[in-house]
Amino acid sequence: MIFQDMIDIRSLDIKELSDLSEALGEKAYRGKQISEWLCRGASSFDEMKNLPASFREKLKESCDPGRLEVLRELVSKDGTRKLLYGLGDGNAIETVFMKYRYGNSICISSQAGCRMGCAFCASGKNGLARDLTAGEMAGQVQVTQRSCCGEGERISHIVVMGTGEPFDNYENVSKFVRIISDEKGMGIGKRNITISTCGIVPMIAKMAEDMPQVNLAISLHAPNDEIRKKIMPIARRYPIDELIDACRKYTEKTHRRITFEYAVTKDVNDRDKDIEELTSLLKGMLCHVNLIPLNPIEEGGLKSPGRRRAEEIAEMLEKAGIPATVRRTLGSDIQASCGQLRLSAQAGANTENQ
Ligand code: SAH
Questions:
Q1: Element (H, E) at 236
Q2: Is 94 a catalytic residue?
Q3: 5 contacts: CB under 8 Å, gap ≥ 6
Q4: Of 12, 21, 286, 330, which residue is the least packed, with the fewest Cβ within 10 Å?
Q5: What is the pLDDT of residues 161-198, one digit of tens each?
Q6: From the CB of 169, is ligand 1 less than 6 Å away?
């Protein structure tokens, strides 16, 4: 099969695209031209009209343009768009496009599925299918910008908070950041990119070293190991003290504020004593707590105490000197949270197969 040997062209940076062009007998500047097309969301070589036809043929023979096929698109009343993209191999991933006052933001997936198995999350319910390539992550930004933004309008912010655990696919995520922030390409500032992790501790120091300007968000969801272990299997591997210690070192090194995500879950982590414990855990840290009223998934058995309780918790934290906000819920009318669309598509596929 020729496809197995195809070069994943969207995963190449401009230098590598130039080298590829030269290897195929063209001038190096063709690499920049290919990059411009990819940035514009092109997903076929035929579109790349300023390349000689003979070169386009050579590219077709040796390279995969990394097409993302829109399988479903849901548009919310608030302008949020949720896209289900089909990858070449039958896997599907979710991407969410959001409009904020400060600009357009995109939430991308880093893996097809996830193997972290958090109790409250739909993304991990069927385990990990595979890692996404850097190009499949870049493609989500480029193709979505093309379809969701008007002329001259851009995506300015990226959160790696869709399906998957980015630190379980570190090398590809890191290459993606390099490609997407390249000023000669999409030029999305590293300070406008946020990576969210369930807490794979060794990678926190690595990120501080490799990409100190990128923002870090930690899915904490509990004030202690006892509660955390019940809802997040990763807590059995990395105790909360080690996690917080790594976070402190991260802020010392980068001087960047960490966001702690906390899915407020009824009778699990939302009691006054839980919040008091959370307060002492985070006291004095350069951080911000993002409270998300739990978005219950089927078969999870976990419930949300409601937005009002999340707001109360935010007040408690603020009073104790810890900045906290309740996350704005965008796209709640379109299943825009956490793997729900992909899961429902799989369920649909399963019933069709039966
Ligand atoms: N694996 C990464 C990124 C993907 S999840 C991580 O764990 O951070 C993105 C965020 O959504 C995480 O904070 C995750 O814990 C949260 N989340 C997942 N399912 C949720 C649900 N049902 N309700 C509220 N938040 C949820």
A1: helix 234-237
A2: yes
A3: 62
A4: 286
A5: 999 999 999 999 999 999 999 999 999 999 999 999 99
A6: no
